[in-house]
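Input for the complex:
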Amino acid sequence: MVLKNLRGRVAFVFTETDFDVDQIIGVKNIKIQNIDELAKVAMTSYDPEFASKVKLGDILVGADNFGYGHPHYPPLRAMRHLGIAGIVAESFSPGYWRGEVSNGFPQITCPGILGLVERWDEIEVDYDAALVRNHTKGTMLPMDPLSQAERDMIAAGGLVPYLKQSLAIGRTK
Amino acid sequence: MGSTITEKILSRVAGRPVKAGEDIMAKPDFVLSYDFPGYTDLVFKQMKEEFGIDKVPDPERYAIFIDHMIPAATPAEEELHIGTRKWCAENKVALYERAGIGHQVGCEMGYATPGAFAVHFDGHVSQMGTFGTLAIGIRRNILEAFVRPEVAIRVPHTTRVDFTGTLGLGVMERDIFHHMVRQIGSASCRFQVLEIGGPALESLSIAGLQTITGLAMFTGAITAIVNPYKATLDYALPRAKKQLEPQYSDPDAEYAARHTVDLSVIEPIIVVPPSPANTQNLVDYLGLEIHAGYLGSCASGRLEDLRAAAKVLGGRQVKEGFQLHVVPTSRQIMAAAAAEGLITTLVEAGAFISSPSCDYCFGRIATMTAKQRAVSTGTLNVRGRMGSPDSEIYLVNAAAVAAAAIEGKIADPRKYL
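Predicted:
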């Protein structure tokens, strides 16, 4: 399975440590299921024009322990719907990280990322080199490499396709 | 260099010696879940429709708990339970319904086998670590454990925390946990196992250790574990679901970090909304008006917690208009509390007592309106967990919930003990 590098603009930088992702849509909207409605409320308290500024392939940047608390799935569903391709953070809270990687949504740990990028910089997640590059500034930082299972899960687009491929490989061995 | 208890357990299930940092395939001894929409119903459906699997091949490894939406309040909730009962019957998988909160019931039923490796989708299963079981919450990846024998896992590193000193009056294990988060940090054990030990360990109650290990996720840990000792073995071995050698960390095991927590300096804690990392001393919040109290959840509601509350409330009354909900964690605990007279004491004081259920904790019975405040022994204080996002939840120990119920404000439980 080929894992394609992420390349896109930094659509937002969450500087808050222990960031609770439910804040992206607001706790009062957490039970909304409709994806268009979710996308409409997403980020409104951070940048009311976020939805119109963001484009396909953009990347979010977070601080330490991103996803702490009791993360729900709708906020990041909304972000994917708006075109966000992945998240790079100083570090992640494990429960959140596990849940989103099983959705096939890249979650990249890169200590120092807050000092590497500013909003709207063009960055690239280079999986094979285990580097995050800032093409706007010409700088880079090492990222924590993913395990083979995690790479396969992201490349496959999530847990179910990953398990199907993995079981098929097991049978042909 | 020796091995940690975690490395030893995973070495057995991997079938070869493994060390922290290695990516392995490991066969869980137990695969546990509670029925919940979007989790178990989806897993059962995906097993069949996506993977063509009708039945799990070795049903004795699996157990399902019906503890959420108990009692069901809508036909849709009952539908979910019906689906779960049907799947368990068809698969010959053990189903524990209305027996209590699954993480506690799992311990009572022997899934917390010392030396075993268990997976669940919910992280609070870490409380089984009290008995030397490596129990990890893997969220939706639980599907993997239903469609093949093994799960992909990276052998975690371990942070070791040693308890020293003696716990003061009115201070409970709940306070130790939150004090520990304050001392070592809310991300200090990220992706690691939190191993708890030290000279003061055995002075704590098993129920209290379940509270501490069950909340491990708020240090960033994927689970917590305690090396078995006489009291935990006496509890866990006679009921163990599987004959396994208990495992122990070697004295020269390699730890990512070591910390010592002095129990003597800990005061009753209050965790201030909206983050489980916002730990303060209770005394700094005395007098803050409180409208509701909840004593229960997988992180509390055990006999020791009910005793503490009964001691505070014995011969006293819950303040007029204050809503005190007490929910024993399991049927066994509720029966024991009744036999001890604790239920009578609490009811006479004005507590509203419910049979075991997760519903007061996870946001189903969530009636608080904007500006209302609650004290709680639940797992979390995030916004909206008990109702309006503009209500507030303060996490405290069981005795402090009882003290607040008497005064209708944050109160120091020590004056009632």
